[in-house]
Every structure is written in C-alpha cells, then in structure tokens.
Amino acid sequence: MDFNDEFVKILGQNRKFALYAAGTTIALLGLGLVYKYMRQKKKLTRVGVVTQLLVHPMKSGKGVSVETAECLRMGLKYGELRDRHWLVITEDGHMVTGRQQPRLVLVSLSSEGGQLCLNGPQMEELRVPFHQPNNAVIDCRVFSIDVQGRDCGDDVSAWLTRYLESDKTVRLVYYEPHLKPQRPSEKDPLYPKDEKVAYPDAAPVMLMSEASLRDLNSRLDSEVTVFQFRPSIVVSDCEAFIEDTWDHIQIGKVEMKRVVGCGRCLLTTVDPETGVISRKEPLNTLKTYRLTDPKQKTAPIMGQYYTVKKTGVLHVGEPVYKITY
Question: CA-CA-CA-CA torsion for 100, 101, 105, 106, nearest 10 degrees?
C-alpha cells in the first residue's frame, strides 16, 4: 500500500471525527460572533440618579434609609437586614399588615450584636437572639400564596400583641433561604417562573421617582412623603412617571427588568409618622389620573416592580441607565 492509499484510509476512518470537530468549531465561532454583536448593540442611556435606598425589614414596618445596599435576587440587603424578610401573622398563619393594623408602620426592626431588636412608641426595646434554629417553621399565606417562616419566639409575639393592643395573638416569622418562598408567577404570569421572594406583595424591588411624587403632591391639599409608598429605590433627575417606560435598567453593575406597575392600595393612606389611616388620600387622587395599567384594573399606578437579573451593590448618588439593544 503506497502513501496515497494509506492517507485515504486514515481520512476515511477519521472522517466522522473531523466532521464533528468542524461542526463544533463553526458553532463556537457563531456563538462568539453573536456575543460580540450583542455586546456591540447594548446601549446605555442615562435617565436618572439614585437619591434614596430604603430597606423595609418587616412587612409594613418602618423603612430604613441607607447609603448603600446589596441588591440580591430577592431584594435589598443591608448588613443582617433583608427587605421584607420578617412578617407579622395571626396564629393560623395569615399575614397582618398596615391595612389591618396601621400602627405597624411605626415599628422598627434592626439587628445588633447577633440580636434582633424591636422598637415602637411607648414600648421598651425588645432584644432576642437573631437566629433561633430550634423554633418552629410555620406555614403562612401572603395574599393567596403559600410561604413559610421561622417563628421568632413567644417574647416577640407577646411584645407585638401588646403593642397592637390586639385581642388575638400575633406572631413574627423570619424567612430563611431553605424555606418555601413565594412564587409571584403563581399570581401573575408576567413574572418569570423561577422568580421567588419572601414576603413582598409581588416583586423583590420597587422603584419610583421623586418627580412622580412631586406631580402627585401638586394635586393634593396636604403633601405626602416617599415613605407612604415604601419603595426600594428612589430616583431623581427625570420626568414624572417616566419610570413607567424603563423596561431594562442598570445601576452600577446591577441589572433589573421591569415587570408591571405597582398598583396602589389602602396602605398608602397610612401616615408613616402617626400610624393613622385615612382610607382616602392620596389614593383617591391617584385614582383620578393614574389608572394607567389595565393589568392592575382598579389600582392606580405609582412606581414600577422590577426583577433582579444581575446582582451587585447599589449606592446613593449612582446614575441610572436605561438599557436598549
């Protein structure tokens, strides 16, 4: 057998391998070109600047204003405090919020030296161990969605029940990573199926602008503050309600995608300084001109819900960019 015959024989034996190798190479080159094209097409347009970051550790509790916060898939985190990771419940597991107990908005929850600290008007500070792994895990419900929480103990339960002057016992639970979360897609198919949150109404992040608040206040007899709307991120240097159009944004290294407008409820009528509910303003005024999202039906829109696509650290003063391709 001469050299040519031997070459043809080897080529035939390895033809299948060669075809696979060639196909793989072409596929990788194609992916590389697509990636390069997508990177080239990504466009960042500055649309505002972050002026406030607010963490609400306990659902319906007092917000904590911070200069920097981690932005995780399940919301903002500041030290040991994670946004809406504590929930007040009835003994049968149903959530208790400022809608039923307006004075909850005056309760602050903090963490210090491995302890959970509760404070409220005319109440002595209560401190209990932050982690209580031997306490029971309780099945709870946030609106129509099942979720779980670790009970924070009898001392916390007695403190909250006394503070709220409730004739029925209430308890506090804490969401831990291994417990059952909420799946927002169970309530609204607009949310990705893999999205999960602890105790927010829907999304991990809610963003609104100062200009939108100013527009609302220009229509009210008595001005309201941003704390009435409980956002995660407040943005300035933009037009009123322009956040309704920010479908994909970037702040620092954090990327977020808008899901739906935040439909407002009676909680906005609770004064965050007094804990008194009016059941009227600013909700009535919002309904006259902000019934702008048919998905929310009778709820006026103030702010937008976002899911977190790329995590990172947020800082007050950072520019907000709209991403387009």
Answer: 170
